[in-house]
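Q: I have 126 residues here and want to know how they pack in 3D. Can you give me a structure?
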Amino acid sequence: QVQLVESGGGLVQTGGSLRLSCAASGRTFSLYHMGWFRQAPGKEREFVAAISWSGGSTTYADSVKGRFTISVDNAKNTVYLEMDSLKPEHTAVYYCAATSVFSGWPPRLAATYDYWGQGTQVTVSS
């Protein structure tokens, strides 16, 4: 089992920044890719970014390229999502998730992820 706990969400104004954290515990993390998804009210859960546990590979949704940065701190067993230049359309619940490396790369489909955190709310006001 893998346990994931997100933190770092909150209220920010347009143009502000937040760094989300995902603390992981459980199985051997090198066997997983880590991803961030988000879900806004009335919308489907959508892919945001993913990273190999080693940090050697990253992939992003086109809508966040150049704005969001995913990273991993192996010593802290923590994955981060740095969000810059935030806009109201980024408002959503953000979820951290883990998928087996055997699911392939890039891991963009929510259905392939085996473990999920509880989510953290990000609200961007204008």
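Q: Anything worth noting?
A: The chain has a mean pLDDT of 96. Residues 2 and 27 are 6 Å apart (CA to CA).
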